[in-house]
Amino acid sequence: MIKQAYILVALALVIVLGVAAAFLLWQPADPDELAEVGNTIEIKVILSENNGQNPIVYYFKIPSDKNYTLLELMERKFLIEHDNGYITSIQGKMASMADQTAWMYDINGEMALVGAAQYRIKDGDVYHWDLRSWQ
Predict the structure, then answer these.
(1) 64 and 115, same domain (yes or no)
(2) Do 24 and 9 reside in the same domain of the chain?
(3) CA separation for the pair 4, 14 (Å, rounded)
(4) What's the gap between Cα 75 and its chain centre?
(5) Cα 58 versus chain centre, distance
(6) Are residues 68 and 22 part of one domain?
(7) C-beta of residue 126 within 8 angstroms of C-beta of residue 112
(8) Is the pTM of this model over 0.90?
(9) Residues of 57-76 as b/e, b for ≥16 C-beta within 10 angstroms?
(10) Which CATH number characterizes residue 40's domain?
């Protein structure tokens, strides 16, 4: 009977230590996931090629206090490369001088008039990035 009590205590201790270790080691993949409901802005990012072909749509909820630029958002949510704020690659798809292609974007259906590093994201915005010919 005493032996069984020791086993139960040891088992409970292992469970408690396991839960405590899991809690201490757990970290969310993205700090934006910690945003409380009501304290977020919702945005949509569309990636496509050749004037809208093969679109992939992404939805994000971002804490409203982040005040990200569009470039910062793209750096946090996608695999990108850029040269002085000019995005040259998104998710491994490269713009090419030889093919005369570039990543161009619009905001809410309107051609962007500023670079991604200057534009501050806003609630409800839709960003459409399209890899296309610049000719």
Answers:
(1) yes
(2) yes
(3) 15
(4) 8
(5) 9
(6) no
(7) no
(8) no
(9) eeebebbeebebbbbebbbe
(10) 2.170.130.30
Contact predicate 71/82, CB 8 Å: yes
For 131, the token pair is: 């890899």
Residue 29 DSSP class: S
Query: How crowded is residue 117: how many other Cβ atoms within 10 Å of its Cβ?
Result: 15
Give 132's contacts (C-beta < 8 A, 6+ positions apart): 49, 50, 51, 101, 102, 104
* DSSP secondary structure code for residue 25 in this structure: H
44 vs 56: CA distance, rounded Å:
10
Local confidence pLDDT in tens for the 135 residues of the chain: 677 666 666 665 556 555 555 555 554 445 554 445 568 999 999 999 999 999 999 999 999 888 899 999 999 999 999 988 889 999 999 999 999 999 999 999 999 999 999 999 999 999 999 999 987
Domain limits at 6? 2-30
